[in-house]
Structure prediction request, 688 residues.
Amino acid sequence: MSRLLFPLGIVTYSLLLYLLRFPMLLLFIYRSKADPAYRQRFAERFCYQSIPARAAGGIVVHAVSMGEVVAATPLIKQLLATYPDLPVTVTCTTPTGSARIKANFGDKVFHYYLPFDTPGSNQRLLKKLQPQLILLLETELWPNLIRQCHQAAIPVVLVNARLSARSARGYRRFMPLVQPMLAQLTVILTQDNNSRRRFLTLLGINNAKQDSGQEVIPKVLNTGNLKFEVQQNAALKQQATDFQTQLQGRAVWVAGSTHAGEDEQILQAFGQVLAKKPDTLLILVPRHPDRFDAVATQITQAGFSLVRRSSLQPLLPTTQVLLGDTMGELMLWYQLADVVFVGGSLIERGGHNPLEPMSLGKTIQSGPYVFNFALAFKQLERKRAVSFVKNAEDLAQSTVNLLDDEAKRQQMAAQGLALYQQQGGATARVLQTVTTLLPTTGAHHLQQRDGTSEIWFDPQLLSAGGFARADKKLFQAAFWQRQNAVTGQSSGRNTVWFVKANSEQWVLRHYYRGGLIGKINKDWFFAVPLAKSRAMAEFAMLQQMVQLGLPVPKPVAALYTARGLGYSADILLELIPGSIDICHLLQQRALTAEEWQQLGAMLKQFHLAGAYHSDMNCHNMLLDPQGKFWLLDFDKCAFRQGQDWQQGTMDRLLRSLRKEARLAGEKAQAFYWQETDWALLLQGYQTP
Prediction:
């Protein structure tokens, strides 16, 4: 039912977004009263900006705002180091996130706002960036973007995903839209096991099946929380040291990421704290910049002496409240703190990230509403490393008690820091999954439109062949003949051309229809989404198999040519030099027992990877001069889950060998195969 209702849900969702575009722009203009950046770069909200060609063909990381950018920073740095030849583009939706991206990476990455999730905006984004992989941070689920990437065979990974029980209940109300959207994600990498179980439930995937290893790449994995890998900013550390001289040993209470409805309670509590600890400094840091002025007014109306960080005025001994009304400095204030209150928790906002103060070894307080970070706070509570409060009175009493008891503060801080350090490694686990989807070298591709044709190509392989850009002529045998570059041809059911490009050797293959229909319609196919067309589907599958280390030829380029209501297709592949297919080899000599076992072991490799071959026969298997076996011709093939299909491919291969042996016998020709050889192949297949 979800699959049937999904198209209707997408259309309704898209229409709603089109209607809301201008009200959303008006909202940005309104918010620009507090932050002028909101009325800038409107073209990026629709992806009408110019994007340089060198940004295409890489990795896109979307982190909605500053918190997600901070969490993603170690991962982005690892991506830059792991894929030095690929461009990395980091997108966000808020000016604060944009400022942090620029501060952290400068010109090391490309940066834009992610456009509104309309079909047109996403189409422009994907055409300009042509990404090989998209990583979405946390719960940035955009149905149109995910759907269009799925159609274009672009892997989309939800990274550091979290799903509270409350959010899961909300998603269940929109299952016809949500479940197919989640199914179109390539992988979901969660922060914790609770989130993993909730995503599996939404997907309708049984835990036992997920854990059985039946999927090629498990759909949902718990890789841990990237926010446990916060990196200290050297400049902020130096600023913290400079500030210490202004504090002159005063106690510092920091209330970070606070919201409307909390600031009043914090200021009320602070008045009670001052009655017992008159030398205390409160550093109050509102979550949103559009509230800075309002909170400043609240502070002065409450009778406290105030210094605004934005004024750059020094702290005086008489200063009671420092208002953190700048962006990107929360970690600076946390470094100065004796006690940290994590905001968003005295009201039903769900709390904010406690991991930053944990990473600094700070004593933590929180209100009762922490469902956004339930697991982290539960772990802190279990270790007695957090002080929970319900209201202003509780908050004041907790603060006074903690400031009076240094030993307790140190114990709580040490427990929180130890917990933080135990949870590391998320970046490495995320990167491990990323490299199963995008190889580190030589297997990314670009897209190019040429009239009514679409070309996918590997720029490195094409360049090695002496071509700076893809062109339709590369798929024409006549072009290679004019260059005297044809080195041979295979004239089986249809001609396959072997060509030489510089020192590279390639195979050019046109896609033909088989069977009875092929006598009427030789090479025309009904239109399908580009990524599912014959050439592109084989190109993408070959790239993934190359990256998985499977013995297949590397794809050089693929061509989709629109023809009326359908298309024709061609593909260029690397040639396996000096190789011979098993059928022709068996006409010349017998395979050794070791070779049969090696062939069986190779087939097992493909089955373990979930690579289904629709036409497994002895003509599609090669042996090269180095004694390595290869598998080729992956037209109409795919990755499959489970194991039910595997025996069928083995049976097909056995029928192929028996058929060739029978035909050779009828012609009184040699074919060095016998039934006992199959047992040797199975022995290699079954060996662990």
Observations:
- The radius of gyration is 31 Å.
- The chain is about 45% helix and 20% strand.
